[in-house]
Design a protein that fits this description.
Chain lengths: 296, 183
């Protein structure tokens, strides 16, 4: 019988979990606060937040709405979602995890797995609320915030392998005009995005293609889910507003693996871990009607 | 005979930019999902065809029930586990490197005895499923998650045995005939 630890909700207290390789601290508001690499002793300040951009939305005319084919936020600052987060903590021999309830439609599990040198963030977003009158398009992001002096530079993969250097508010192939300060700095992130300075690299591995960027030094953001209520006139002729199984809106769930290490150690880690995430094990099941021995 | 072309065609179609990014009419997106599900079912057929070829031909092999995949496992739902007191969990590793990790299974009992491929018992961990809010309201999610440490060879698979009995049945596990499991 596996011991099952009690999981009483925690509010307003610091929390800490560890798997002997990595240690994660949470502050009184329930946010991740520091990550410690136990082997190297390196401690990195890191906070993770959910926010959402309000998308531009026009019923008629040729104004460009945010929609299926285009991301066009209304303004440059995403809205914050909640001030404090309720936590539940589970500790055990194989997995220790902190379960965050951010609000009614956002939860997340932050997990440390035995023997693994990454932090797993399993996010669950939705149903994204929809106002009755003139609904506002909402495009939900997760933002990882550190003190890394990334100097306007970040890196994203091309086709899951080649790493492309990106520079904020700049393009190598045309004269950049900053009419869309957020959207034009978003890039396709198929498997990984990272920032670094001389001492520290923050790498985020994702389990599916997402739009992502580093709009401020030390920060990485990725778009997890969106709900748009206006046709963007690029041919779909429908708003991106799927009701999902519940009829109240689609719920999306996925995984990010966070690696924080030195810039020299990180490439070897993300190269192998990206394959491990992409090749997550496939499971099949069958009733067992023989003894274990006979089956073997 | 499973028809992998159904799966090949579905995944090929998914490379279209409308599919990868979900930028399609809702009914087109549903059609993509339907094609993938049909392809997936053919894949399961191929798994069972392969396993039946690997099994020794004797009367016991006829009692081997078909393998099933739980498509809603990421919502903590798995019908085979819910309806079986004892079951096998076969873990496939499609990576070209061996894999040591922890897999999470939807689980419906408070008791679990886990045997590794070589028949030895291994330590597992049982946690309550995190329901959080009413996000996944109305879904038949398992009340627990069973965490199992697994070691899978590169491009290989391994079968683990799970029983919700509280004690080992009378027939003690006899030492296995095979010293080392064939990789």
């Amino acid at each position: 019988n596996a011991a099952m630890s009690a999981q009483q909700p925690i509010v307003g207290a610091t929390v800490n979990i560890s798997n002997g390789i990595i240690e994660v601290d949470f502050d009184e508001d329930g946010y991740v606060s520091t990550i410690k690499n136990i082997h190297t002793g390196q401690t990195t300040k890191m906070r993770q937040e959910f926010l959402y951009y309000e998308g531009a939305g026009f019923n008629e005319g040729d104004n460009q709405s945010s929609g299926a084919y285009i991301f066009r936020p209304n303004g440059t600052d995403p809205k914050r979602l909640s001030s404090n987060i309720t936590l539940q903590v589970v500790q055990g021999p194989l997995i220790s995890e902190v379960r965050q309830t951010v609000n009614k439609w956002i939860t997340q599990i932050i997990r440390l797995i035995k023997g693994k040198n990454y932090i797993e963030f399993e996010w669950t977003i939705g149903p994204i609320p929809k106002e009755d009158k003139n609904p506002i398009t909402k495009e939900v992001i997760t933002r990882y915030i550190t003190e890394i002096a990334s100097n306007g530079e970040f890196f994203t993969d091309a086709n899951g392998r080649q790493i492309m250097p990106r520079k904020r508010n700049f393009s190598p192939s045309f004269e950049y005009v900053n009419t869309e300060p957020v959207a034009s700095n978003y890039y396709p992130v198929n498997s990984r995005i990272f920032i670094k300075d001389a001492n520290t690299q923050l790498t985020v591995l994702n389990d599916r293609s997402q739009g992502g960027s580093s709009l401020h030094d030390g920060q990485i953001e990725l778009m997890l889910h969106r709900r748009a209520f206006y046709d963007d006139h690029w041919g779909v002729e429908e708003a991106l507003d799927e009701p999902g199984d519940s009829g109240k809106g689609l719920v999306a769930r996925g995984i990010h693996w966070i690696i924080i290490d030195s810039p020299t150690a990180s490439p070897k880690m993300h190269r192998s871990l990206a394959f491990e995430l992409f090749h997550s094990p496939q499971l099949s099941f069958a009733p067992l009607q023989l003894s274990v021995e006979q089956y073997r | 005979e499973g028809d992998l072309d159904v799966l090949r065609r579905a995944t090929a179609l998914m490379q279209h930019h409308d599919a990868v990014t979900g930028t399609a009419k809702e009914n087109v997106t549903r059609d993509y999902a339907k094609r993938l599900a049909a392809g997936w079912n053919e894949g399961v057929q191929v798994i069972n065809d392969a396993l039946s070829k690997l099994v020794l031909k004797d009367d016991k092999s006829k009692q081997l029930p078909a393998q099933a995949i739980c498509p809603l496992i990421n919502e903590t739902i798995c019908e085979v586990i819910r309806s079986s007191g004892e079951f096998t969990a076969t873990v496939f590793n499609s990576n070209s490197h061996p894999l040591s990790t922890v897999v999470r299974l939807p689980y419906y009992s408070r008791d679990a005895i886990i045997s590794a491929p070589n028949g030895e018992h291994i330590e597992s961990q049982l946690v309550k499923t995190f329901f959080g809010t009413n996000q996944l309201e109305g879904t038949k999610r398992a009340p627990y998650e069973l965490l199992i440490p697994v070691d899978i060879p590169a491009l290989g698979f391994a079968t683990y045995f799970v029983s919700n009995k509280t004690s080992i049945r009378s027939s003690r596990l006899t030492p296995s005939k095979y010293d080392k499991s064939k990789r």
